[in-house]
Amino acid sequence: MKKCLLFVTVVLTLSFSFAPSLCRAQSDMDSHPSCPLCGMDRHTFAHSRIFLEYDDGSALGTCSIHCAAMELVLDRLKIVTKFSAADYNTRKLIDAKKASWVIGGSRAGVMTSRAKWAFEKRRDAEAFTKRYGGIISAFDAVIKATFQDMYDDTKLIRQKRVRYSAMMQDIKDHPECKYCGMKRDLFAFSRMLVRYGNGPAVGTCSIHCLSIDLALNTDKMPEAIMVGDYNTKRLIDAEKAVWVIGGKKPGVMTIRGKWAFEKRTDADAFIKENGGQISFFDEAMKATFEDIDQMLR
User: Of 191, 215, 233, 266, whose CB is crowded by the most CB atoms within 10 A?
Assistant: First the structure.
């Protein structure tokens, strides 16, 4: 009984000791949910986010050191009284100037090709460099590196956005699924696009709705059938894709999932995590009509 009470006491003590930092970490993301410079969700990038507090009582939260550096340039007349960065491991806000930073390494950075991560404890930074590489640095070196990388990073971001915009053009042209009305941008990983000769293309949310279009248009010969790669969301040739049927991940408009991958290695990785079996387009289409039959029963 005494051991049980001791355990509860320790747990409660630890809970209360961590509570202020957890509340603060949550509050800065609640009050500043998105980065004002790039619009990215700060909850998603909690491990790289920055929080700036000024002498006039105002504050600003960014997704990364890259955007924080831009903010320093934009509001260079304002005095920063507190510069906080998220600890890469715990997501807790820490003093950026006292942190052990890691520049570079194999881990992809946020808004930069050369990553910059903050750690409250030096040993955590050392453990990170052993696994991913990079150089342990002080805050001033990180700021210097951020501005050194700024031009290349902004050019890279611009190129990525141009490629992304081109990749998602079919969603702009066909924002909703023709048959169920679902927003195709929300299902970019399962969306499909079919073109019949010189006629207009048809966009659907999934192979389920595509099967309806193919069944209704037997008088037309598809010129191309495209599907969103499950990982990259880029449209790929559905007939050349590696498909995965089944697994624990629920499908779109169907219980039995049917996912397309451009690379066999990605399909294998998906199966390892979620189950399912390797298939090809013809098999995926047959399975789709089988599932429709089951849904109607």
Answer: 191
